[in-house]
Specification:
It is a single chain. The chain is mainly α. The chain has one domain. Helix content is 79%, strand content 0%. The protein has three helices and no strands. It has helices spanning 3-7, 11-34, 41-65. The chain is elongated. The protein starts with a helix and ends with a helix.
Amino acid sequence: MKKYEIAALSKQELIDRLKELEDRLADINFFKVIEQPQNPMVFRNSRRDIARMKNRLHQLAAAETGQA
């Protein structure tokens, strides 16, 4: 997901997508033991998307409390 796509999501949508991505990453890590994925970049991309979403949620929370 791109940065501008994440910025366009509402807070609840971010929370829902974050939960989905974390579940997906856990599944990918589980199945990695059985068979190597065809695209190993899926781990890196998933972790980065999760970090971007958490960062955006933190920014929204800071804006609500009036912090810089």
